[in-house]
Structures are given as C-alpha cells and as structure tokens.
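Weekend entry, working from home. Most of the wet-lab plans are on hold until the incubator is repaired, so I used the time to fold the two sequences that have been sitting in the queue since the last round of cloning. Logging both here for the record. First:
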Amino acid sequence: MKKLLMSLVAVVAFATLNAQSVTPKNITGIVKDSLTQQPLPQATVALLEGTRSLANTQSTETGSFTLSTITPGNYTLTISSVGYEKKSMPITVKSDNTTIDLGTIWLITEGKQLSGVTVTAEKALLEDKGDRLIYNAEKDASNAGGTAADVLRKIPALTVDLDGNVQLRGNSNLKVLINGKPSAMMARNLADALRQMPAHLIKSVEVITNPGAKYDAEGAAGVINIITKKGLQGFNGTVTASGGNMNRSLGSRLSLRKKKIGLSLALSGYQYRNIRESEVVRSAFSNGSLVNTLTQNNEADNLGTGGNGELSFDFDPDSTTHLNFSANVWGGDFPSDETSHINLVDHTGQEIQRFRNVKHFSNPYGNGQLDLGYTKSLKKKDQEFSLLTQFSRMPDNYFYTTDRYILEEISYRDKSTNYSRNREYTVQADYTHPFTFNGRKDTTSLKLELGSKAIIRDIGSEFNVEQSLDGHSEMVPDPSQSNQFDYTQRVYSGYTSVRLNNQRKWGLNAGARIEHTEIKGNFVTSSTHINTQYNNLIPSITLSKGIKQQTLKASYTQRITRPLIWYLNPWINQSDPKNIYTGNPALKPEINHAIELGHSINGKKGFSLNTSLYWRSANNAIEYLTRVDATGVSISKPENIAQRKAYGININAAGQPNKNWNLSGGTDVRYVDLNSVALQQRNNGYMWSINTNTSYKLPKEFTIQAYASWYSGWISLQGSNSGSYWYGLSAKHAFWDKKATLTAGVNNPFQRGIWQKNQQSSASFQSESNYFFVNRSYRLTFEYRFGKVSADGGKEGKKIRNDDSGR
C-alpha cells in the first residue's frame, strides 16, 4: 500500500511541474451570417486538439467570443449554429502570442451553397474500431420501448437467451459497465438488470474482447460497455413514454450547459413482465441404480417495478482543467413468485410425495454511487493526468415465504430473510505521456500510459430462516440455516503500457498489469474464517498492420474472474424445496488466456467486414454444478470445474447499399470443451449464432426496420440447452419538425412464446427440463425533444472504471 501511495504522489508531482510551465493565451473573433451580415448570437465555438475538445464558449448578442487560457500548440477551431453549416479552421498558438484576433467569421446557411448538394453522413449501425465493436443503438428504431436485453440481442458475438442470460463467444464470465464504470446492479444479477433498463436510455454499446493493460483484469470473456445518452450544448431535454404488454417505461432527461459549467438530470421509471412455464423430470441414482424420479411443473407471472436517476455536474475553470461530479441511484423490486406441483416416486413407481408449493419471492434492491474526478491537460498534445474517486453502496436483499399444501391443506411453512450490503471505495490515478520520433521515412508516435488503483469492497450478509413444521403453529427460527457473513476484498493494482503507431500503419499496444488481491471472510455465527491473498501479473499485446483499406491484427491477453459475494454467500435459497441454490465461500479466481487473429476491410458505401479467429482457455473455470441426493433434492452451487476451452470464428459485416438502406449482421461458430478431472466428467460440442438487422428510410420521415437472431443453444459441463430464435419488426415516424417520434414495434408476432429443452446428467442424476417463455410483445413509444441543441458541450468527465473500459 505504501508503494501505491508513493507512486500516486510521484505522478501528481510530475503532472504539477509540467502544468506550471504553461503560459495561457486568448483567441477572439466575431461570428456573422454570410448573407445578412448580421451578428449570430449563441453560436457554439469549440477548440479541438485532434478529436478532443479543450475549450468551448458561445457567442454574445453582438456575435463576439473569447476563448481564454489557451496553451501554445496546433488546434482546430469549429464554429456551429442551428441552421448554418459548421465551419472549421486550423489555429496555431505560439509562445509569443498574447491574443489571436480572428476578425469576422462568416457562416453559410444550410442548403444555400451554389451548385452544391448538402450530404449528411450518419453513423453506421455497426462499427468496427479495431479494439472494439460498436453498436449504435440510438440509430436502431426497433429498440424504442424495449429493454437493454433487447438491445444486446442484436449485437454479433453476443448471445442472449430467452431468460436474459448473456454470453460473449460462449462465455458468461464477462463484465458489463455503464458509461465506462462498474454498476453493482449489473454485477448482482445481469439478466434481471438488463430486463429492467429501458432501451431509450442507451446511446451505444461497445464489445471489447481483448482489453489491454489499462483495463482492470476482471471479466474473463471481455467487457461490454453500455453508453447512455447525454445532453449537448445549451438547454435541452427529452421526454419518452412507452407502453406495451410486456414492458413499459416513462423517462425524462434535462441538460443545461453554459460556457464552463454543465448540469444534467435524468429520471426514469419502468415495469417488466415475465411469464414462464416449465416441466422437469429428474431421476436420482445411487451406485448406478435408480432411486427415485421427480416430476415438477412450475408456473410464474411476475411484474417488476423500478426506477433510476442521475445528477451530474461538471466545471472547466480553464482550458486545461476539468472537474466532474455525478450521483446516480437505481432501485426497485423484482418479484419471482411461482407455483409448483411436485410428485416424487420411488424406483418401483410407488408415490413417495405429492404436494403443491407456493413461493413468494421478493428482491428489493438499490444502488447509490458518487463519482468525483479531476483531469488536467498538460503542455504536450495528449499529455494528461487524472485523479478519480468513487464510492458506491448497494443494499441487496432477498426475502421469501413458501407454503406447502397436501390435498389443499397447508402442511409446512417457512420464511427466509437475507439482508446484504456492498460498500465499495475506489481511488485511481492515470498519466499519459506522448512521444514523437521523426525518421527519414516516416514519423512514429508513441504514448506511454502509467496508472495505479486501489479498490476496497466491504460486503456482508445476514440471513435467517423461520419454520412452521405443520403450517399452523407459530414459526420458530432454525439456527442451522442462519448465519452472519462479513467479507472484505482489497485489490491494489498498477499498470504500464505503450501505444505505438507510424505512418506505415504499423500499430503496437503492449503492456502489463499487476494486481494484488486480499480476501478476508468471517462467518460470525459459526466462527469460521477465510483469509487468502494472491498476485496476478496480466500481460497483453496487440500488433496491427494497415494495408490500404484493410487491417490485420494479432493479440494475446489474460483475464481474471474473482468470485464476488453473489457466488461466495452461503445463504441457502430453499424457496423451491426440491431445487436448492447456495454460494461457495471456497471458490478460487478463474484465469483466462485469450489469443485472437483478426482481419478487417472497409470498402465503399459504408461496407465493412471483420473476421476474427480466437482461442480461449480458462483454468479453475467457475460454473454452477448440481448434485441430487437420495431424497430427490438437487443442490446447485458455483464451483471451480478445472478447465474450459473454446476455438471459434466470428464474422461481422455492415453496409449501406444506398443512402436510405442499412444492413448489418454477423455469425459466431465455436467448439467448446469443458473438462473436470475431479468430477470425472467432460462435455464438448459446437455452438453457433446468427444475427441480422436491416432498416430503410421512406419518404415523409418514415423508417421501417426488421431484425432476427438464431442461437444453437449452450453447452455446460453437465448438459446442454436447445436453441432459440428472436425476431421483430418496427416502424417509426418523425414529426413536429423532427422533434417528436412515434415508434410501433412487435417482437415474435407469430407465436405466443417458445419452448426450450435443457438436459443435464452426472453420476447422481439425469434430468430433462422443458421451459416455455412468453416472448410475443408489442409496444408503442413516443419521444419528444425540446430546447436548443448545438455542438459538443465540453469535455467528457472521467470516472472510476472498475473493469476499466479504457476509453
């Protein structure tokens, strides 16, 4: 810890010395209409260094503007105003300049150029940025009124099953971030969280399969970064309302930015309905002989309700300094009530048990998070220092009651409470230093990145069970099913990496990250303790070469998955008496090795094709395993199964046959091999997925869209799951001068739902389960945008990124 603090002090001191050598300058000018020659008030003036905004302001009533405290260097000045064409010009600020007066700058009215045609280029629905695949969700009309799970279903390389479980290239051990920072809600239960996040909040989604050293090592399969919509310059806002048979939402976002200060507020409420049925037939064995057979039928129809809000504030005291603060909260309750009819017979077919189990399961959850960040741009271009802090607190509680009936007479009742907490403290420092080398044949640019980070997680859980053995008498506590669990995890890390590019289109990103983890657990009631620590050195390297419109790349990295409280908590969920779930405090971290070879090509009409060959190998792979005892009760908990390997190919393509038509899609085919020597069990096979999406713009501001996806099913150590499909149609109309849109959408209109089959087996059991998910849905979404919107409203505030997105 002392070494970490010393490195932070050194980085801060180095950054301060560099900052003291900068002498600020000013840039002034006047913006006017080229036809009327009248001043243009409230025109947005921004100074860019590359693609990064360093300073911005708005012109006054007389059209004048001033950008203050500018350091020497080469920049681009952009001037924009609603109804006018954006103007850009190069600006060089020298050390002997005090003020640069640009005089009068004339803006041309849109569409008034002589002998010219104005062409507006839009982002493609799918973009390949080399180290990440970007899906621009806001360009997809069919997302209106849906959920985050609906959005992720349309991204190649991802598979989302009918219950919302996500895999990236066949691996579910991934990290999902919100705006580059972790969300405790996403870590708690990803499937539930995605169902409860309205799609209208999402701007884009980034899928990163081989994160570099700057990223946290968490997330064996990779990183998914969900980027939400933000307001632009001036005062503006949106109101969105969506209604349908399966989900509905209401939300609003307000944004105000003037000169150096920005303020935004977003609020949203939502509901999601889940209807399912299932039938399970499971046989238990002992020494190869049949002991009993369980038949169970389940029915569930649940409606979850929740909301979220975020308040953010940022301040630019000068052109090189940025301060940002944000506070956000998530909360709600997603019940999982279920009625089960259970029948157990022995090996001769003689009935042992028959009863009806009624479960009332509640999961009130919440998450509050505070971020405070400081970013300083130093003398050189791309030279930057940032110091970021974060605090989050997440109460995550589980309550259930079960009533057991025999011949409609109650015979047993129990009640369980599990109060859990998760407090997380993080501090992070990053420094980037650029270098430029001028050779005889080309120029090479190099960026050195250094950083350190500390995360402290304070987690606890208190769980109790009360029982009434006859269903009528007073409930009494059961000490054997009650405990108090305290858990602390500390992760200290440091990284260094270099990014090299030259004019011959060679690129290298290489680095290493070291992480030290300390874990302490204490079962207070039973006086049992856990105390362990370990170090991980995580190397990463990506080499690329551009050849005209093509790029070749090769990469290698390691990833780690640490078992968090939701895997470690020994609380026993017995709400279904024949299917019990619990955690495993003895879990070890999962280490994943990843190699990838890639090729991409960008052609005419927005065409792009990306192909990747990949290999994944995980030691101590974590997977839920099930065992069945002689009474027909199954117990499932996460365990280290030894080894998981995957070999595959991923192909993604996108294009625009004409200016109104967009096409995109992809496929992923992989061979998966899972092996556990300890359990003497192995399973392997091929898995595949196909995804396609198309949209077409019609006259009079109408857009139609269609999408479809097919999955072969999943393979686990103990079994497999059958395939599924998902498809949808939508139509959108923009009106009121494009400030309002109305979108009608339908998913899977030709059947009420879909059946899936799951087969599992081990030495102690064989089971076949058939699940029916209601997935036919329809919705109508209205969105209205108001206020004055113009160009970039300032710098993007940096925040803590546990499982850093590296943006």
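Second, folded right after the first finished:
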Amino acid sequence: MATLTDSEVEKLFSGAPQYFARSEGHYTGAPHPSVAFPWDEEVEIRDLTDHTQIAVKAWSCVTAWPHITRDVKSDRSAAQRATEAEVKRRAHFYPRCRERPNMLSMFGLEKGSMGYQAALELGVADSLQEELWGFPSVATRLPAVLEQRQKMLNSKDGLRHVDEHVIMEQLIKNGQRYNEQHLRERKVTSELYNELFLQILHPPTKVLDHRDPYSLAVQIMALVKVLAAPNTWIDFSHVEWRLRLGQLLWSDPIGDEAGDDSSVKTGDSAADIHEERYWLLLQILLACELLIRLDAITEGEELGAESIRPAEIHRFEKDANKSVKWSLILARAWLENIDVVKTEVTPSDSAEEKSSGWLATLTKRMSLSRDHGSHSHRAPVYAIRGKHVHRQADGLAHFARLLRWPEADSYVAKISENCRSVVEGTPLNTPLVHPSSRSHSRPSSHHDPLPSPGSRLNYTPCRRTKFSTTLKPSGWLTKSYVSGLMLPGEELCHFLMATLLENNPEALSRLGPDANLSGGFVYSGKSFWSTACIVGRVLAAGKGAVECMGWISSDVIPRGFGEGWLDVAAEETKEDSLQIDKKARLWGKKAIERESDVLGDADPGSVFPADFIIPFENVYRDKMPPFLDIKFQALDLRGVGGSVHSTAAEDDSATAMSDLTTPSRRQIQTYAAAATFTVTDVDSEETKEYTFGLSMDINFVTAHPCVPSHHVKIMKSPSSPTIQQVDITGNSAGGRTTSIIGHPLHKYYTYTVLHLSELLAKRDFSLESLLGSYSSASHRPSLAPTTSTTNMAKVLVVDCITNFQPLPQEHEIPLSPVLSRTESNTSAMSLNSPLSPSPSGVDGGGLSSALLESASKKMHSETRRRQFGSDMEILARAVCAEKGWNALISRRRRGCLACAIREAGALGWKVIIRVD
C-alpha cells in the first residue's frame, strides 16, 4: 500500500487543531502554549477557540495579551469610536511579560472549565511564586528596603529627591502626552531629556551613546536601571501586590488611627502607609516616563523615523527584569484609566482638612519624612479620578445580569448612581462606614484593611488565587474596580464580586463583612461560587447554571445551610503537586508536541492509511448499556475538624443570619463537600443512590473545537482486509461512501471507552486498573502492528452520551483502506470507522459544512452556553472530583473524539468526559 504524501496528510487533518508550546525568546520565562491550524487558511477555522471572549471593555484589564472585546453594549458616539480607532492604530510597546495563567483562556466554553493554554500554565502560575521563592514584602518595611531607598536617594547616579507635587505635576503632564500623537522631533526628545534628568534622575556619569547622548535610548536605559534596583519598588509580578495596589492607594490610615478596631495597631502605621504611597506613586511616575519613551521609539520604528539597534533591544530585554515589565503594565493601566486633577486649596478647605474630588489629596501627608509640616496647607490638592466610570458601571451591571443576581433589574438601576457617588464624594481621609459596630469589631491580621507593617491580606499562594478580605460600603475594592486601575489576573473576578456586594446594602448586611472571594456563599435562594472552588466547577455542569468572569450561579443550595459565606476544603492531586515551576508539564515542549502529533510516533515518510481509524465512544457490540435516569439530589457540607463553628450549618436561616453587630458575629467555616445522586435504570426500574466527595482540587478543560475535513471521504469495499464493521449510507462507483465524521486517530493513541454506568459499578477501581483492563489495542483495526510496548490504554473516555445507537449486524461490510477519487477529482482517504453518522446528517465528532458558519458565529454565545448541562454531567464531574482525575470535556458537534484524545496527550491527562 502506498504511503501518504505531505499533501494528503494536510488534507486528511484539515480543520484539526494542533497543540504547541514554544518559547517567546530570552528572559521570557516558561514557554507559551498555543493551539493552531497550520494547514488551514479559512477564517472560520483559524478563529475557533476553546474559551469565551471578553464581553465588555470594562473587563479588558483582566489580561495583558492583545485581544478584542465583544462590547455587548456600546453607546459611544461615532466621533468617539473614530478617536478610539485612531488610538488603536498607533504603535504601542508591549512588554514580553504577561499574566500566568493566560486569562483569555481561563473561561472555557464549557461552564466551570478552562482552555488548553490556561491548563498548562497553572503549573507556572504567578500565584505560585510566593510559595516557591518567597519575597520581601515592602509593607513590612524591612531594613534592607529602607537602606536601599536611602542609598538610592543619596547616590548621584540615580534617583533625585523628588517632591510630592513634582510627582503629581509630572503625572498630569504624562497623561496629556499619552493622549496626544507621539512626537519624534529632536526638540521633543531634548525636552524629555531635560525633564527627566533635571527633575527626576541624576544625569548619567558617562556617555552611553556617542552617536546621540540625548537620545530616547539613553533615557530608557537610565530609567530601566533605576526601576530594576532591588529592594526598592513593589514587585507586581507577585499576585498579592496586584491585590494590594488599590488597598495602598485608597485605604484610610487616618480613619484607622481614629479608632477602627478592624485593623492591627502598629504605632505609626499611618505615617508608614503615606510613605509607601509616596513610593508607589513615584514608581508609577518612573514607569509612565519609561512607557511613553518606549511608545515613542516603537512608533518611530514603525514609521521609519527611528532605528533601534539589535544590541539595544538585547540589553533592554536583559536589564528590564520581570518587576520592570510589570511596572510598565501598571503604567499602561494608569495612563489608560486615570486622570490626575489639580485644584487650589482655599483657607477654609485647609482649616477643615478636606478636599474635593474622589480620592482627596494624595500629597497631603505623603513625605519621605514623618514630619508633615504646617506648610502642607499651602500645597495644591491633587485628586485621582477614573476616566471610564460609566464603562465600569455598565460592566458591573452586565456581570449582575449574566450571573442572574437576585432582583438584578432594580439593582442595576442603582449601580451607575452608586459608582458616581463613589467617584465624586469619597475623600481619602474620611473614615469609611463599617457595616458592623466599631465597638464589637474583632481585630484580625487577616482582615486588615491596611497594608500596615507586618500585616497581610488573607491571600494563599496556590494555582488559583485564594483571597479573603473585609467588605465595606464603597471601600477600596469598589474604588479599584470603578477606577479601572487593576492589573491582569484573576483579581478582576474578586473585584467584580466585591463591588457587587459593597454596593448592595441588603446583601452586605445579610452576608456580613467578612468575605471569602475564592469560596462561595448562599444568598436569596441561590448559591454563588468562585471557579477557584471545586464545588463551583462541578455544579457549573448543571442545567441552568451560569458562569461569568470566574463566578458560578446555581439554584443548588447546600442542604441545611442558611445564607452566608463558606469555604470548601479540597486537596491537590499528587500528580499536580509535583508538576510546578521547573517540573511543570509546560517546560516539556518536545513531549507536548510529540504526544499530541497528528501522526503519532510514526515516521513522517512512512505513514499508511491503515494506521488510522475514526475513534468512537457510543458503539457497543455485546450488550447495550442501560438508559439511566440521573437526578442530582443534594449538596452536603460537613465541617472540617479544627475550623470555626458556624451557626449556619446547625440552625435555620433566621438564626444563621443573626445580628452581625453582636460579639458572636459569624465567621467563615471550612467544609468538606459531597454530592448525592439517584441513578435509575429505566429498563429494570432499579434505583441506587450514590454520594461522591468533592475532595480533590481538579480542573476541567474544554476540548478544543475542530472542523471535519472536506477533502476526505470514507469508502466501504468488500475487498478490505480489515475486520472492523460499520454501517455507512450513500453510494459511489467503487463502493459506498459518506462524508467523514471526525478526524482520524493514529494507532499510537490507545484509548478505552467506558460507559458511565460501568464506571459507577466499578467506582472502587483506580484509573490505572481501568486503563489496563480495558485496553483498546486488542481490537484496533490496523494492517500494521502497533508499536505500543504496553497493553494499557493511554486515555479513558467516559461515555455520557444518552442517545445510544445499536450497531446493525446486517451491514457488516469491511472498509477499504485504499486511496480513491471523489467526483470532484480530489484525493480522498478511505479509513476504518466504526461509527455511524447521526440521523440528522450531522456527524458525532465535529461540525458539518452546512453548520460550520453558523456554529462559528454562535461559539461564544452566552445563551447557547447556558443551555448546556445536565445532572449526568454533574455526576461525571463529581466522580472525577472524588477520584482526583483532571478531565477534558469533549462535546459532540463541537469537536471530534480524536482531537480530544490528542489534546489529552498534550496536557498529559488521562480522562475525557464525552457529552452530548
């Protein structure tokens, strides 16, 4: 038999995603995972994704990757849209440093799942870095930090002693420059040089560029040197500081000194906070100065007005460490979202120590020394205002609607008004109203609203951000979201829910101020879960559950639990706990691509048609599996030993929601969760009850969509030497043909199919025993012997498809494994296939050509996404959560089983849940 040519292989796997992991260059960290269609040029195929698109512009800050939002609601004028389009056309500098995992891939098409990229990047997630390496928290004011800062100020080859009003004036000027067209004349370059080295930095002690000592490159090198200094600046590559950013800017140390017992008293903490705020704003200024110059030189290179030498690029990538690049990301967020407004102080204002505007005076007590002299009242007042308040309010309203928030319509009407009042009327030095009585508030270093020395937010380093905090009406969490000043990562999900609650007085009073934003809560007859919680990821598979920006809304309420917050204990699998940092799967670039190659382990020069089959999941020869009627019964929570007792699990809802102002205010308890189901065999009417503990912190991935090749046909012929049987309808001159129903799978990928009913009967078996006992190698149709050295399947496919079709015995005609010609005279491949096409004409593995266009348009529709789900899918996920099996969710008519099996090979996972 003739081997396949390169052209035939490309036609055979047209529309099949291929999985990669490639490095982006030096000093960029772990490789970047990606999915591509290298043999397809059609936009409908190349644009297929396994994740949802960001719905509104207000959420764009969630990622540093270039992206396009759907903008579900846009009331911008034509002139405004034209201006924004002009800005987008300008060249901008993008640092090769982005959040991990990729937040574009964190929200999979299947509710409660993620995409391929995010799954691989969890092992090198930003939130793991504190646990792996540790870091000196600037808020602890370590002696090394104070010493390094003092050394930098005393040096004549670095940072000048910059006054507070100089910082604010330069921030105003930078904001104006950023909104103008970048100018590249020598005059402007000299102006930038003089501003930088006369007001902010000392001039270089030696000539850095003999061709042009005043060039932008010289200024860039000087700024990078200062920002890269160790133990001086906040390192926003650490997730905790991305959370603390708004807290440091907008928390109220004066209010805490006045008697807010919810904070930890540390003597002169307010002065320390003002000093840290000074250094933060100075860091933002330096980063903005650097970014504006990088933008200018990038645009100049794009238009041919500048010439960047390769040596300069290499030096920048080497000197600009991760901390510098994250400072640039912060600078972009600041320039895009923040305006600094200057107002003069009248005598009456200074007497009352008040200031107009949203965030009041940031320079009033911002000094390197702790002596805030009497001259401070003469200084002007600078207010920080968000540029896009209405945009952020619309995003919050969209979040509430999608999440089906109780009485969302009446609540949404108040959101814009509340956000506007936050912007216009909350001075920084006014104590924020706490929902509980000050006299009975309990002190807690884990709920400290200030990053005072020695204190920490309740943040736990792990693959997904674990975050607990205290909510306050119009608190710093709300201000962070409304301003738009947020850094990429999962933090936006926390800010969204926190803002939703902080602007809903009734919900805040009923739930209490203490919030576990990585757990869940019950409110107004519904439960809401973070996708960081395993319960949320399992319940998301149910009918009617909805997901939006990392939160799940479900009608399932834990049995016996009243309203309130809760946390769920889940253990990381042993395999996942080992695959972190340098041992993460992502670093195995060659293994990822080899174990997902469309040609398996075959030599590309000797690939035969008989080496492939079309895999199947719902064909049973001996005995048809029973038709199951599965009902989800209850979600049970059991207190974990040693955790704080909660009245919510013991008393009724009225008792559980007792007055939060009492000293016995409820605390968040940690529970162990379990899901109970009844499974009825419809034929025998036998009913059994199953309970699965949601004890393992596993993940689910949406199998990437694919499109069946239009160049390939399957032909049946009595002369075929194979023994695989199939029923195929249609006619052709040389036999009977039909359009291919999915992509072929190389014999290298052994797999076994287990119906959900069999899995329930063998629930005590390990995954290894299931793979070993049900190896598919023995019944693989192939003319060539398999190269597999073991009789164990690589992947377990859990069949959750209910519309079973028995295999007809009267049409047992073998398939021809030879090349043929179709009527259009294009090469066609005849392959072994045991799967019959569905009666509707749509294949069970991918999308038919008739549905390709409509499916690609609706791929990201939230309406369609909500329709997916069933109790059977919840059960399948619950089994995986008890066993500790990370699993791909492969849905018929979205992607074929062959592509899902190859993706499992890329991820190194062994379980696929195949759903209808």
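Plan for Monday: verify the second prediction. The chain has four domains: 144-336, 391-568, 594-625+700-915, 628-693.
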